[in-house]
Design brief:
Blueprint lengths: L5 E8 L9 E6 L2 H12 L3 E6 L16 E13 L3 E18 L6 E6 L9 H22 L4 H8 L4 H11 L4 H9 L3 H53 L4 H14 L4 H16 L5 H15 L12 H11 L4 H17 L6 E5 L6 H12 L3 E5 L7 H4 L12 H9 L5 E5 L6 E2 L2 E2 H8 L8 E2 L6 E2 L5 E6 L7 H5 L2 E4 L5 H19 L7 E3 L1 H11 L6 H21 L4 E3 L4 H5 L14 E2 L1 E8 L2 E13 L4 E4 L4 H16 L10 H4 E6 L13 H13 L2 E2 L3 E3 L2 E2 L5 E2 L4 H10 L4 E5 L3 H6 L2 H4 L3 E5 L2 H8 L2
Parallel strand pairs: 1-3, 7-14, 7-15, 8-9, 9-14, 16-17, 19-24, 21-22, 24-27, 27-28
Antiparallel strand pairs: 1-6, 2-5, 3-4, 4-5, 5-6, 10-11, 12-13, 18-23, 19-20, 20-22, 25-26
Main location: cytoplasm
Enzyme class: hydrolase
Subunit structure: Homohexamer. Organized in a ring with a central cavity.
Amino acid sequence: MTNQNAILPAIALRGTTILPGMIVHFDVSRERSKKAIEAAMLHDQKIFLVTQIDPEVENPDVSGVYRVGTIGYIKQVVKLPQDILRVLVEGTGRAVLEDFQQDFPYLTGVISPVKEEETLLPDTVTEAMYRSLKELFHRYCMENGKISKELVSQILNIESLEELIEQIAVNIPLSYQNKQKILEALTLEERYEVLGGILGSEIEVMQIGRDLQKKVKARIDKNQREYILREQLKLIREELGEDNSADVADEFKKKLQELSASDEVKEKISKEIERFKTTNNNVSENSVLRGYIETLLSLPWDNRSEDSEDLKEAWEILEREHYGLKDVKERIMEFLSVRKLTHKGKSPILCLVGPPGTGKTSVAKSVAEALHKKYVRICLGGVRDEAEIRGHRKTYVGAMPGRITVALQQAGVNNPLMLLDEIDKTSSDYKGDTSSALLEVLDPEQNSRFMDHYVELPQDLSEVLFIATANDVQEIPRPLLDRMELIEISGYTENEKEHIAKEHLIPKQMEENGISKGELTIQSAALKKIINNYTKEAGVRNLERMIGRICRKTARAIMEEGKKKVTVTAKNLSDFLGKEHFNYLMANRKDEIGIARGLAWTQVGGDTLQIEVNVMPGKGELLLTGQLGDVMKESAQAGITYIRSVAEGYKVKPEFFQENDIHVHIPEGAVPKDGPSAGITMATAILSAIIREPVRADLAMTGEITLRGRVLPIGGLKEKLLAAKYAKIKEVLVPAENKPDVQELDKEITDGLTITFVSSMKEVLNRALV
């Protein structure tokens, strides 16, 4: 197929491949190529044209060009400006490049010309190839549409397969890579296969392109049509004087662009805006959609505030705003410390539990100020509809988001401090269980994707610092309680109340009632009398009311009587507040038979109970009066059983209990009483009445009794000890198992009290009976 080697001047073409039979001109600017043309013109005008593999290479070697090139005959050379030669060349045959010679100032190729041999294929095969190629070319021309009909007709009339392949390859627009593939096909069969593959591929690409173009055109046409219709609709609505939804939708889109939210949220809002644009203004759905979009756009999806990490400032704020409350302050400082170390820290869910008026709600405000968080409050007292928490489905008339979502709207950030006030006062009915709806809100594992029925998009509540308040832990459902960290705020001591009044309540009430500093003085003795005789509470709410009454009377005296200064003392306090409201049941002056002093816990603090027992002839009945609850009645019965079991040791005859009735009474009969902690008190009073030995008047006791005379631990010890202190009790008997509780109490509470730990009734009786 090849002849012996020949040597010809060579040109490396960039981005161009010339086939045999092609007459084409190209520009030459490289100096070596110009010299190759000059050398060719001086001899037989033949030149070897080979294509570079990489068009960017300036001086390629043998490895930088294709192996098969074309022998060309230079028909014309024209000099152009800027030292450029335009060369007209006709391709005469193929040649294989063996090497480049480096002895000349231009490329010289050592080539092996390819001799075109006659086809040895059967006539049927040749005919099949001929027809197939004509059909492919015809289809190609139909798809292309840019080849002239005369040229198509001329090519289709060619009767030789070899000439047909050559003319098609020369006349259709192909990339230089495809032309190189045809050039490298050295046999007729190979050239047919390469050209057929190229034509088939080009036809497929053009069909796909045409289909894509149709789709693009259809879409453009549709958009133009919609634009025209919208403009017409806009004009009609303006003529009718209707609200223009398009303008509102554009406003929504502007807000959406400014919204800081996830792609999921933005995509949902965008769809709702499109729906809003297409609804009629008079349709009720339009107003529903409008309200829904406004809600979504007003939520703080990814908008957050920076928390303060200044521990010193936070501590100063908590100390300034609240007296005492050591546990709460320490927990908040722990949270801040963790946040500062980790730069994130999971927000805790705290539940402040304590009697009314102890400052639970105001603590939450102070915490928000200390952390520089936005503060929002949700009052849950009496809420019994689950939709109040989760929101209503927006398909309902009057649907609205739940309180959690509304609180986030108010805060404007996704990490506020959210106060859930009175969480123990939620209730349930046929509309659902509110406390169950709160489970998802208060579960740190779930609330990162809280679903409000109205919003229908997951909201991240994991950054929210929840603080709940409650008066009674027993009223909070167990699953809900399990998700919260309890911090108990018990009642204040007399000294704490005095500090709170001086530092917070008196200045606050003076400011609210327009009294300047120096115009009113409340002496410490008067303040103590207000605390002990005019209020009976664990908190300071009534104390603040009493101080408010004094301030109002002072304001009247200043205005009507022209007084410059008012001083409130223990003696003239009744002039401001009237007669005393409460008197603590003080310790009895002398020891009495059948009377023992117990200690009780109430929602407004501690109190003392005087238990009285009388024994009289009868049928052995036990009478219990004073509105006692079931647990307290059972404690009395357990006490009787224990006394009967040890009666012989106190020289009590067995028939005594069949011949006498025992009456146990706890005064203030209108007040309900319950609980096991009066067990040892009742047993002591009953035994005292039976054996006629008095009980110490300066002693009080608390503890649960068992049938075998063991003393079990009780709760509410701080409040009970405070009540004993107010009543001037000197010694208190406390269950031995409550020793750790006593050790946690401040000295202020235990000072002046002798606390004796007891574990059995024998110890109680030894200390109590005279």
